[in-house]
């Protein structure tokens, strides 16, 4: 594990960076426990982490819309337990034909209990290479970006997956996005993300977006470091390194 930088010491880049394929085989990424058992509501839940119940949000939107089906995409969904609970509730109320729920996770460790109805689809894939076959009204990623290599690339792709007036919300640690010399990009990144149409809450480590749109950020992905150590959650995480385009400072 990389040694922490003490106050007054210069930042330094790691001695090696991993490409996304190598990173995804890392024990830090493959064994991340942050999302594994999250439920829909309760103590360890989407509702607690996001500040709203995704199913209630979708049902409210369904009642107000003439759209055939609503879509919820959850990236880095872990076992998918909370998604299955949402799908079961939809089937119980006869609404599983009105909402599509898609969960994507790098590790095929999904809850073996089958969901009721037809709402839920779970997919084992990397979010940096997977692409959906539809747009979504709600996209969530609870603590999953901490383990992604090209975080900015993932955000760019997600912006194109939103339906008109769709909502995206995720946890993002800006300190984990670094320049080639090891320094965090920091406020410059927050400013660029806001200019690209995202909302950034640095205190809550939260990023969001309303509606789709093209995103162009002035950084090129170099690779990731899986030895960065714990982030603000207390769990080991991944630092992502980028080269700045000329004039990005």
Give the secondary structure arrangement, pairings included:
Layout: H1 20-23, H2 27-30, H3 46-50, H4 54-64, E1 70-75, H5 81-92, E2 99-105, E3 120-124, E4 136-141, H6 151-159, E5 162-171, E6 177-179, H7 187-195, E7 198-201, E8 206-210, E9 219-225, E10 239-244
Parallel strand pairs: 1-2, 1-4, 2-3, 4-5, 6-10
Antiparallel strand pairs: 5-8, 7-8, 9-10
Task: Give a structural overview.
With 249 residues, the chain is an alpha/beta fold. The protein has a single domain (20-244), classed as Rossmann fold, CATH 3.40.50. Helix content is 22%, strand content 24%. It has helices spanning 20-23, 27-30, 46-50, 54-64, 81-92, 151-159, 187-195, and strands spanning 70-75, 99-105, 120-124, 136-141, 162-171, 177-179, 198-201, 206-210, 219-225, 239-244. The strands form two sheets. It has a seven-stranded mixed beta sheet with strand order 3-2-1-4-5-8-7. The chain has a three-stranded mixed beta sheet with strand order 6-10-9, covered by helices on one side. Helix 6 links the parallel strand 4 (136-141) and strand 5. The two termini are 30 Å apart. Keywords: Methyltransferase, Transferase. InterPro entries: SAM-dependent_MTases_sf. One of its GO terms (molecular function) is methyltransferase activity. It comes from Micromonospora auratinigra. Pfam families: Methyltransf_23.
């Amino acid at each position: 594990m990389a040694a922490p930088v003490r106050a007054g010491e210069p930042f330094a880049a790691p001695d090696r960076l991993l490409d996304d394929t190598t990173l995804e085989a890392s024990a830090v990424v493959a064994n991340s426990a942050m999302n594994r058992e999250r439920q829909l509501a309760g103590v360890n839940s989407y509702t607690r982490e996001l500040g709203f119940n995704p199913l209630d949000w979708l049902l409210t939107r369904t009642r107000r819309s003439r759209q055939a089906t609503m879509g919820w995409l959850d990236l880095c969904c872990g076992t998918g337990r909370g998604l299955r609970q949402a799908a079961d509730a939809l089937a119980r109320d006869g609404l599983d034909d009105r909402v599509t729920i898609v969960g994507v996770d790098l590790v095929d460790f999904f809850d073996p209990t089958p969901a009721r109805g037809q709402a839920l689809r779970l997919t084992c894939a990397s979010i940096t290479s997977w692409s959906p076959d539809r747009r979504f009204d709600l996209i969530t990623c609870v603590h999953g970006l901490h383990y992604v290599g090209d975080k900015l690339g993932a955000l760019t792709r997600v912006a194109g997956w939103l339906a008109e007036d769709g909502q995206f919300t995720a946890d993002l640690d800006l300190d984990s996005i670094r320049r080639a010399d090891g320094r965090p990009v920091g406020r410059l990144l927050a400013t660029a993300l806001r200019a690209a149409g995202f909302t950034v809450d640095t205190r809550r480590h939260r990023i969001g977006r309303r509606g789709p749109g093209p995103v162009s950020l002035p950084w090129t992905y170099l690779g990731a470091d899986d030895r960065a150590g714990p982030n603000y959650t207390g769990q080991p995480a991944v630092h992502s390194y980028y080269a700045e385009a000329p004039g990005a400072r």
